[in-house]
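Progress report, Aim 2. The chain analyzed during this reporting quarter is listed below.
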Amino acid sequence: MASKKKKKKTNKLSSTVKKSGKNKAKPSLPGYEQRFWPRIFASTTGRAVMGVVFSGVLIVFNTLVSGQNGDRFLLMTGIEILIAMIAFWVILLYRRAARAD
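Predicted structure tokens for the chain:
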């Protein structure tokens, strides 16, 4: 006599996720907002504007932290400029190495 196979009950949603292999989450932002930042950073003007905005925010932060102490403000700003220079050179060298391959 043939034995009866038991059917395993599965949740319809979990079986479709297993079949596709991907668990896609819904984006938290609408489509036009998701495309905004790549568009800004794709253009040279957008990068320059974001650089100016970032520098302004950094100077305001330095001013708030240093208070009335001018030496501390200049020291913090100088250290941040040195870090930015080092980061720029590392990124530049990394891109050149990636192009050579």
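The two ends are 66 Å apart (CA to CA). The CA atoms of residues 66 and 73 lie 5 Å apart. These observations will guide the mutagenesis work planned for the next reporting period.
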